[in-house]
Amino acid sequence: MKIGILTAGGDCPGINAAIRGVGKTAITEYGMKVFGISSGFLGLEEPEYEELDETRLSGILTLGGTILGTSRNRPYKDDPDGKDKKLALIAKHYAQIGLEALVVIGGNGTQKTAAKLATMGMNIISIPKTIDNDVRGTDVSFGFDSAVMIATEAIDRLHSTANSHKRIMIIELMGHHTGWLALYSGVAGGGDVILIPEIPFNMEIVAQYLQKRANNKKPYSIVVIAEGIDKPKAQSAASYVAQLIKEKTNLETRETILGYTQRGGSPSPMDRILATRYGAYAVEQIAEGKFGIMVSKNGESITSVPLSEVGGKPKTVPPDHPLIRKSRKMGICFGDREV
User: Fold this and answer.
1) Total-model pTM
2) Is the CA virtual torsion 129, 134, 136, 142 positive or negative?
């Protein structure tokens, strides 16, 4: 059996671990041939691929990024006439290469493309990856744990300089539509204010909270924000919040945008394990002839959900999430009510 594997969308820690999980399981357990598709879906639009043997898969478990390369190309978006010409081209080359299944690793946009390809008769199984943890249908995506560790370490480092200079330190984290990363790293890093897209905030409330801390002789404050919070388009979330805090409190404020650092480097042990489990399970499903699904985690079990229920539907943070409820009881401000 010949199977393909591609990685699409933004890179994140753990992709190579997933590739390894797919490849080693397919080759060792089932005697399959595995082909790595280059640069996401582009590698099937203009065929570019290589066979992955055990030697090629050796030593990649701890590597960040993806050995196959990636792109944010979304074939269905490049067909303004609605005729899905590029999707048809991908299906054509899939058949020409002789693939009998395709493993697609990616986030929300990638899951949507995977679902469309599945409806065209291709044998598709997908694996969720994202540092934002916003893929619907799974408890967690690999890449998230690594990003939380990186962001938490950055917040930890800000505590010392904030305390030394008696400042308000703002750190902006990734999260265009969801605040999972800001919430988890904000709590883990001891943030005083956490602002996420799912909870509308009032800067008057934030300013009053920070002023109250200063009046109570708290030497500094840490403000953790997701990049996707409501703000003017021309401004970064960090600069917008910093400007308003300065105007409303006159307290010394500095901002940090962590940026792509959150997506780079070696995956955490938990992400290596999760990605490996996802990859191995995907191949098990292929061997059983089960397609049109996304591998997912439900509690401690690795299972699957229909692709039709996943793509393009981000998983947002519930405003009453248990971690938010606990955080409020500890005095953390989310900008929507007085503390």
Assistant:
1) 0.95
2) positive
Residues with Cβ within 8 Å of 59's Cβ and at least 6 positions away in sequence, in order, are none
Torsion over CA of 264, 35, 43 and 79, rounded to 10 degrees? -110
Strand partners, 16: none
The residues carrying an active-site annotation are 132
The dotted CATH code for 2-143+267-299 is: 3.40.50.450
> Do 181 and 144 touch, CB atoms closer than 8 A?
yes
Nearest to 154 by CA among 128, 135, 174: 174
What digits encode the pLDDT tens for the residues 184-213?
A: 999 999 999 999 999 999 999 999 999 999
* CATH homologous superfamily, domain 147-263+319-329: Phosphofructokinase domain (3.40.50.460)
Q: What is the pLDDT of residues 257-284, one digit of tens each?
A: 999 999 999 999 999 999 999 999 999 9
The mean pLDDT of 140-167, rounded to a whole number, is 97
